[in-house]
């Protein structure tokens, strides 16, 4: 009787496998493709990333509408990957991007697998310290006063506020979370900002008149950062420029 039950189990597995026409392993089809890693470094104001084959990165495949991973493999030296022994049907292949906070996002390519070898669209994943972030860029000016009288420098009322500190904080917060120094042209940049947030950018200014010397008041502007991989304010918006006052 044990022998009969054994062969009955084998036949049951055989017929279940033969009748299962859904996506998964056990077929003669294959999926191949390439995955590339776009690396976003700091101090890259165009947001153009360096692209390399994603050597050693995990590539995953899901069967049909399943959320669970069906199989995985490692991308090769040139970013090439391949899944074999698939049945015909719909599949999703993907690899994981990682942003500056360590959060991971699946970069998915869907593919309908027919008989033989099938090529999926190239997968691009993103990583690096500036991945999925944005920038705020502006210019800080300064006016100098002496006992309430404007001091013109090189014939100019305002000049770049060289080496002056500029601060940034989340709207609603009391304290700044970062600061930058204006360059020799007054330009300042805040990098690696999270998108879909509002930030307040400001510097400290004095008031006109000797009586107000060393009494500091923040002056600046609120900037909305909408999408990643962009510099704000955008070209269609008012430039982020403001002028502080220093009394001598």
Reconstruct the topology from this structure:
Elements: H1 2-19, E1 25-39, E2 50-53, E3 58-63, E4 71-74, E5 80-86, E6 89-98, E7 104-113, E8 117-119, E9 123-127, E10 134-146, E11 149-151, E12 159-160, E13 165-170, E14 178-181, E15 187-193, E16 197-205, E17 217-225, E18 231-232, E19 241-247
Parallel strand pairs: 1-8, 1-9, 10-18, 10-19
Antiparallel strand pairs: 1-2, 1-5, 3-4, 3-6, 6-7, 10-11, 10-12, 10-15, 13-14, 13-16, 16-17
Strand content: over 45%
Distance between the termini: 105 Å
- Biggest sheet descriptor: 6 strands, mixed
> What's the number of extended β-strand segments?
19
Computed over alpha carbons, the radius of gyration is 29 Å
Structural class: mainly beta
Low-confidence stretches: 1-19
Mean pLDDT comes to: 90
Number of helices: 1
Secondary-structure element sequence? Answer: HEEEEEEEEEEEEEEEEEEE
Helix proportion range? under 10%
Shape: rod-shaped
């Amino acid at each position: 009787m044990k022998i009969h039950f054994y062969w009955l189990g084998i036949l049951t597995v055989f017929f279940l496998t033969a009748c299962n026409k859904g996506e998964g392993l056990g077929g003669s089809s294959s999926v191949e493709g390439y995955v590339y890693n776009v690396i976003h470094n700091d101090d890259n104001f165009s947001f153009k990333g360096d692209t390399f084959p994603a050597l050693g990165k995990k590539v995953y495949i899901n069967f049909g509408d399943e959320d669970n991973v069906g199989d995985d493999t490692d991308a090769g030296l040139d970013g090439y990957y391949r899944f074999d022994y698939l049945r015909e049907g719909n599949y999703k292949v993907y690899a994981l991007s990682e942003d500056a906070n360590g959060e991971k996002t699946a970069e998915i390519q869907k593919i309908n697998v027919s008989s033989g070898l099938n090529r999926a669209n190239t997968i691009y994943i993103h990583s690096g310290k500036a991945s999925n972030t944005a920038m705020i860029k502006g210019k800080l000016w300064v006016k100098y006063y002496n006992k309430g009288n404007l001091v013109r420098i090189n014939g100019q009322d305002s000049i770049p506020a060289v080496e002056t500190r500029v601060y940034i904080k989340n709207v609603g917060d009391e304290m700044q979370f970062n600061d930058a120094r204006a360059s020799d042209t007054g330009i300042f940049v805040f990098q690696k900002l999270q998108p879909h947030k509002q930030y307040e950018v400001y510097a400290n200014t004095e008031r006109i008149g000797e009586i107000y010397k060393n009494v500091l008041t923040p002056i600046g502007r609120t900037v909305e950062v909408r999408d990643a991989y962009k510099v704000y304010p955008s070209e269609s918006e008012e430039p982020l420029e403001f002028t502080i006052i220093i009394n001598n």
